[in-house]
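Protein modeling request. Please complete all fields; requests missing the sequence field cannot be processed.
Requester role: graduate student
Desired output: 3D structure, token encoding
Chains: 1
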Amino acid sequence: MEKEELTHNQLQAKCFTWMWNTYPDLRGLLFSVNNNLTTQMDGNAGAIRMAKLKSLGVIRGTTDFIFYFKGRMYAWDIKVGRDKLRQDQVEFITKVKENGGDGGEIRSLEEFQKKVKEIIK
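Delivered output (121 residues):
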């Protein structure tokens, strides 16, 4: 039987919930960056909303998750199916790496769990 693929939001929720329940002492160090708000409106309303969000610090390319642990930042973006990192996401992750952090894409709960376990060991 073929394994059903999760949606982006389902995978992100599973990763967050696993982290929240498995490591309660680290709650608050992994958080979501909701930078997809600008895609929810069209036309003038969308342009106004996007300008306001930019003025508040919302930037394109920020990853879905930020994890901060022992002075190091990890930036991960959830990807499913044929989805891949956009150029602005690659640039964001590159900047994080150039400044001592790490990052990349997450394609499964198991991959997320492995990365977290390697970091906190």
